[in-house]
Amino acid sequence: MNQRDFETHGTTPGRYSYSSMSMGLRGRATELFQLVKMSRTPVSESVERTLRTVKNTEERVLQLTGVVLRDLKALDIGPGQMLRHMRCFAVKNDIVGIDTDIIPQGFNVSEYLRMVRTNPLMRSVKTLARKALGRDARFTEALVRALGVKRLPDLQVLRMSATAMTFSESNFDFVCSYSVFEHIDDPRAALLEVKRVLRPGGVAYISVHLYSSHSGAHDPSIMAQGRPMEPFWPHLRPEFEGSLQPSTYLNRVTLAEWRKIFNETMPGVHFINERQDDEIGDGLSRLRAQGELSAYTDEELMTVNFIGVWQKPTPNID
Predict the structure, then answer these.
(1) How far apart are CA 134 and CA 300, in angstroms?
(2) Of 19, 76, 124, 195, which is most buried with the most CB atoms under 10 A?
(3) The pairing of beta strand 270-275 with beta strand 198-209
């Protein structure tokens, strides 16, 4: 099944990708300014972060389930325009991705035209700008060197909703997703779909960028920061909330709600919290002393990525 097949026979994709939602000229100009700023940072940082995430995934899955992420049939939900983690997993596995956006690869002019026609305007503008600035090419070249391969394989990315996948039941050995589920209108439905398409014994690794984290509002200026900077947690503090420019739809699911959804859909799931830097913890102590952020626990404020790791049970055979 290719992207054209989906558009003809599938249902309309739901919102779960980084489709730009900035309103007005000022918001769009801010997004583009931050994109240019980020394009000037060394790609080595992005490559290192990508490899670290993949390595952590491999180690955690092995430790918690005993599954080695090699020679598996895999699915990446919402791999993004740069296909970062998906490219790494493709070196050792047979992987396919799904996204609500068109993700052109190489220099296929027809795919870029489809992207412009299909993707939100700012999403297309940012993709074209990033490629024109050479960011994608530099990242790919650096990733090839870091992985020790001659070239990265071409990848299959289907235009499909995570809440209504057209894959058959028990289709994949491994399903992963990074910073995507916070953009899904109905995350419970998406988790049920992950459960359905996993084979018995297969593993899901779902990492959510928590809304209550410092960067949880996805404001481009905050996302572009190398480290958290004051004012901390501006989207959770009324005096700063109006100054933010969120760049995407967010479902605002809380840490407690995520735990409940995961436990109800994937009994026995393992949870991992990836925390903020200690420096922002000092800022939290000061805000606590001033009586701020009392509606939130330290755990949900200090957690950046909330991760669920689940292995689908294998039926007992008497």
Answers:
(1) 37
(2) 76
(3) unpaired
The residue type at 193: E
- This prediction has a pTM of 0.88
Q: How far from chain centre, in Å, is Cα 89?
A: 15
Residue found by looking up tokens 């779909």 in the block: 193
DSSP element (H, E) containing 29:
helix 24-39
Q: For Cα atoms 197, 123, 1, give the angle at the middle one, nearest 5 degrees.
A: 35
CA 70 to chain centre: 21
pLDDT digits (tens, 9 = 90+) for 110-135: 887 888 888 777 777 777 777 787 88
Residue 283 neighbours by CB distance under 10 Å: 18
Vertex 274, ends 48 and 229: CA angle to 5°? 75
Single-letter residue type at 55: K
Rounded to whole angstroms, how far apart are CA atoms 157 and 108?
14
Give the amino acid at 194.
V
- Cα 285 from chain centre: 29
- Cα-only R_g, the chain: 20
